[in-house]
Write a structure and sequence with these properties.
Elements: E1 2-6, H1 13-23, E2 28-31, H2 42-50, E3 55-57, H3 61-66, H4 77-89, H5 92-100, E4 106-108, E5 111-113, H6 129-136, E6 143-145, E7 153-158, E8 163-167, E9 175-176, E10 181-184, E11 198-204, E12 209-215, H7 219-228, H8 233-241
The structure holds zinc ion.
Length: 243
């Protein structure tokens, strides 16, 4: 089975469409959350995601905030401004869809899915060795897929040597999976590794491989939408630079 794994779309519809086109035919789609927040097109993104067949979708922290499950005060001013805008423009049925998304980690075959981490699915960032080490004890499947950091990356635990390594694998490299690993497909709508191209991954369940991918999209068009919506200029600048 060929699975599209993506995360952190952040109301960037143009980027989402580029990813869906680039990924091609897949058997399932696993979305690790944060459909909204930051970007200009929350309704178009939620509607597109809802219609994807064989979809598994997690709740992200921005999705939790916009549906009233988390206080806006926990977000900085610029992030909060986008959430206030999204709360205002999201349709009732799109809000209802976001409310159905699970906030706890979910097991799909050999993989545990979480937005942030298996230990703390909504909030924790797995960015470094200490946070990865703690989280390897919080899932029992061979692999765990997370988003939230917006950085395409992988953490590998060598159980014999009790050692963890972090890698940012090259796009299009086919990585053979072995127990235990934590993998992050990166962000569709707001990459933060200085590469502004949309990030996602293809997981092959039979071959047990993970292929991180990047695809360019029309960034200028999205920047225009951000400015037209009156959202913070910072959100337009950062998608052009990848931070
Ligand atoms: Zn996010």
């Amino acid at each position: 089975m060929r699975v599209l794994v993506m995360s952190d779309i952040h109301a960037n519809y143009t980027a989402l469409m580029a990813v869906l086109k680039d990924a091609g035919q897949v058997d399932e789609t696993w979305c690790l959350g944060d459909l909204v927040g930051y970007g200009p097109d929350p309704n178009a993104v939620v509607e597109e995601i809802r219609d994807i067949p064989n979809l598994t979708c997690m709740l992200g922290n921005h999705d939790a905030a916009v549906t009233g499950k988390m206080a806006f005060e926990t977000y900085n001013g610029d992030a909060r401004r986008a959430l206030i805008y999204h709360e205002k423009v999201l349709t009732a049925s799109n809000m209802d869809f976001l409310r159905t998304l699970p906030s706890t980690a979910k097991v799909c075959g050999d993989v545990t899915l979480a937005h942030g981490s298996p230990r703390e699915p909504l909030w924790e960032y797995i960015l470094n060795l200490p946070s990865a080490r703690i989280n390897f004890d919080h899932f029992t499947t061979p692999w765990c897929f997370v988003g939230h950091t917006h950085i395409q990356s992988m953490f590998v635990l060598d159980e014999k040597k009790d050692r963890i390594t972090i890698e940012q694998p090259k796009p299009d490299s086919v990585i053979k999976l072995h127990p235990k690993m934590i993998l992050n497909p990166g962000s569709v709508g707001q990459p933060r590794d200085r590469d502004p191209r949309s990030a996602y991954a293809i997981y092959d369940t039979e071959e047990q491989t993970w292929t991180p991918r990047r695809v360019m999209y029309n960034i200028a068009e999205v920047q225009k939408h951000i400015r037209e919506a009156g959202l913070p200029e910072k959100h337009a600048v950062r998608i052009g630079e990848g931070w």
